[in-house]
Structures are given as C-alpha cells and as structure tokens.
Amino acid sequence: MTAPAKGASSRRIGFTALGFSVLLFSINGTVSKWVLDHGFSAARLAELRVTAAFFILLVVALIWARADLRLKRRELLPLLAYGIIGVALTQYFYFVAIGRLPIGIALVIEFTAPVMVALYARFVQHHAVKALVWWALALTMVGLVLVTQAWQGFTLDAIGVAAAFGAAVALSVYFIGGEYYVARRQPLATATLSMGAASLLWVVVLPWFSFPFTKLGKSLPVGSTTMPVWVPALSIVILGTVVPFLLEFIALRRVSARQAVIVGTLEPVVAAIIAFVVLGEVLSWTQAVGGLVVLGGVVLAESAQ
Questions:
Q1: pLDDT-based confidence at 6, cuts 50/70/90?
Q2: What is the predicted pLDDT for the residue at 36?
Q3: Which residues are bridge partners to 220 per DSSP?
Q4: Which is deepest, 10, 62, 137, 197, by most CB within 10 Å?
Q5: Which are the contacts of 191, defined by CB distance < 8 A and separation ≥ 6?
C-alpha cells in the first residue's frame, strides 16, 4: 500500500473533508436530540446508529479495505472490548447526556477526552509529554468550573453531567485504541470492525427482535406539518454517522490524527450554534466562555503530546 500524498493540495482536501465532517456531526446532535425527545431511548438510538452504520460501512469496506477486515484469533477479544467501550458506550453516554443537557455543554465535557489521553500517555505509557499538558489540564478544569457554574451550586442535571464524563472516558478509549489499530490497518476497516463489535453489545443487551420498529412510523411535528420518525433516524445513520466517518477516513489519509482532533474541537461550538437556532438552547456568557477555555485546553493537550 503506497503512502498517502501529503502535499498542499492533499492537505486542503483533508481539511475540507474534516470541516464537512464536523458540520455533519454537529447537525446530528440536534437531530438526535429531536428524536430522543419524541420517544426513543438513548440505548435504542445508540443501537440503531451503530448497527445500521456497521452494515453500510461493511459494504464500503469490502470494496476498499477487504484485506484489512481479516482478524486473527488473538485480536478478537481486544477488538470486542474496544468496540464496546470506545464506540458503543461513547454513543450511549453521548445520547444520555444530550437528552439531559444543552448539546454544547454535553460536547464540551465529552471533548475533555484528549486531555485524558495526554495524561494517559504521560502516566501510563510513560511517554515524553511537554509541560504544556499541565496548562492544558488547568485550562480544562477552569473551563469546566465556568461551564457548570460550580460557585452557584450544582445546577446542571447530575445524570447528564455524569453521562457526559462517561462519554469522555469512553472517547478516550476510542482515541487510544484507534491510534493502535489505525497503525495496523486502514481507518475505514478499523471503523467498520469497531462498529461491528459495538453492535454485538446491543445484540445481547437489547436484541433486535424487541426493537420498537413501530416508533419509526410515528409522526414528528415539523412546523405546520409532520414527518415520520424514520426520516431523522435515517439521517442519524447516513448523514450523522456513515458520511462523516468516511470523510474522516479521507482526511486521515491526508492530515495527521492530531490535526484532525484539533479541527474536531470546532464541533461543540458549531453544535451549540445549531442547537441555539433550531432548539432554542441558550448558554450563558459564562458557560460559553468556559466552553472555549476547555477547548483551548484540548488544543494544548494535543500540542503537548
């Protein structure tokens, strides 16, 4: 397999793909919350998202990355654990969080994951990490205090905050494991296999024969008209999962993973703006500034590794 081009034109393609990926993920937050507010549980929506996305990605991967889909026996359990924790639980905790918190706040908390990864690299893997990691940690802590407005008492939904931190921990596992697997196989194959492993969790916990398919036919209010639930549900799978994942696959062939994570910090900002326009979710100035401080810490954390 030849190395991907890294010229200026290739990087532009990579960053353009990342930009569209961030936009689609951001829109997906609002669409997902809309579906969650109309009868779908976080677990069922996570099940639908990862399982349907897996089958679609599998078709694409069989065309473009067939060889990298092969697994050795010793790889099965580690990949299963990675898919369950890094993918299935990230999705589940994220949906719980946005169902109880403003989308922007939930994403800001979840996006502390790169700081956790930097601390893992320093204390667990004993990698050389710049002193910037301490500034990153300090900024993140200050930002989280501002986001949660801790001096006023705990005013945010406790379960929502716990779920957002759970999503951050699970996303850390996704980043750490992803770095390991992408070094050994194509990102597309890694995404497909991890989605497949995640879907196996739901096969056991929430079997498909008990899936509430009738809810997909229910009508959602859209202004003066209505829309069946399956339309936004399909959007969550296609436009909110498969397409942005494929765009990230294209980008990772042209830019570094660290650059991708830094660009990804735009997602909470864009998602908060979309949620404000569509759902009327309003953050206080303190929370908005706190969110930017947290994201500044994330950028520093990436620079420290």
A1: low
A2: 94
A3: 227
A4: 197
A5: 57, 245, 248, 249
* Amino acid code (one letter) for 122: R
Q: Rounded to 5 degrees, what are φ and ψ at 265?
A: -65, -10
Q: Which amino acid is at 267?
A: E
Which residues are within 8 A (CB) of 211 and not within 5 positions of it... i.e. 6 or more apart? 44, 47, 48
Q: How many other β-carbons are positioned within 10 Å of the β-carbon of residue 35?
A: 23
- Dist CA 176 CA 179 (whole Å): 5
8 A C-beta contact, residue 291 and residue 147: yes
Residue ranges of E strands in 101-255: 219-222, 225-228
Q: What is the pTM of this model?
A: 0.90
Task: Kindly indicate the confidence band of residue 3, based on its pLDDT and cuts at 50, 70 and 90.
Answer: very low
**Least confident interval from 189-203, 226-240, 259-273:** 259-273
Q: Which two tokens stand for residue 218?
A: 């229910």
The secondary element (H helix, E strand) that includes residue 11 is helix 8-36
- Under DSSP, is residue 218 helix (H, G, I), strand (E, B) or coil? coil
* C-alpha to C-alpha distance for 240 and 5, rounded to whole angstroms: 27
Instruction: Look at residue 209 and give its three-state secondary structure.
Output: helix
Structural domain spans, the chain: 8-304
Q: Both tokens of residue 75?
A: 């790889």
